[in-house]
Structures are given as C-alpha cells and as structure tokens.
Amino acid sequence: MMVVAGALITGCAGGPSRQTTADLTRAQSLVSEAQASGAQQYAAADLQAARDKVQQADRLADHNSGTADELANEAAADAQLASARAQNAKAQQSLSDMNHTLQSLREESERNANGATGAPAEPAPTPPNPQD
Question: How far is residue 94's CA from residue 106's CA, in Å, rounded to a whole number?
C-alpha cells in the first residue's frame, strides 16, 4: 500500500501530466503555424488570445493540470481560428485582385469590340485651302 501511495505522490510531483504536455505542445505548434500564416496581420486578437492561454497553461501545468489542459485546448482553438481568419482574409484579397483583373480585361475587350482594333486610324480629311 505504501509503495502505491509513494508512486502516486512521485507521479504527481514529477511535473505536468503527459496529456498536459501533449496539449501544450500542440497548442504551441498551432500558435506558431498561425503566426506563420499571417495571423498577426489578419487576426491579431485571436493570435494574442492563443498566446496568452498557452502562457497561462504553461504556468499552471505543474499545479493544476486540469485547468492547464483546458487552457491549452482553448489556445489551440484560438490559434486555429486565427489561422482560418488569416487564410480567409488572404482569399478575399485574392478574389478582389482577380475581380479587378477581370474587370480590366472586360473593359479592354469592349474597347476592341467597338472598333479600337489597334489598326492605325485613317487621317482626317484636310479642309480645302482657300488659296487654291
């Protein structure tokens, strides 16, 4: 009985649980991925929330693994949200750029269809000279 109790105490005093460590590692990885995806520019608040929760989870990991796990999972979700918002913003920008390009092509096509084929225009007739 004493050996089991000693093993439990040693296991608790040895640092964060494997689950907490795994959750923290995953959250930190997702925060890094979000940052690399441009979340700082497009979803700064979500990225900062994820960073803050990772730091809180890290501080609590040795003392309160349950709360640390919850915070790490929330941080992972916040980081994924930041990444998704960054990707969405980039996609919206690409869509806007494509629409602008298409509009330019339509305008050019209309000009060409209306006779501006690029052939040199004939010179306008010169009025008769009154001295002739």
Answer: 18
Residue 35: the pLDDT is 96
Give pLDDT tens digits for 50-105: 999 999 999 999 999 999 999 999 999 999 999 999 999 999 999 999 999 999 99
Contact 60, 68 (CB under 8 A): yes
CA-closest candidate to residue 34, choices 45, 47, 22, 24:
47
CA–CA separation, 11 and 119 (whole Å): 86
Measuring CA to CA, which residue among 36, 33, 73 is closest to residue 53?
73
In this structure, the number of other CB atoms found within 10 A of the CB of residue 85 comes to 20
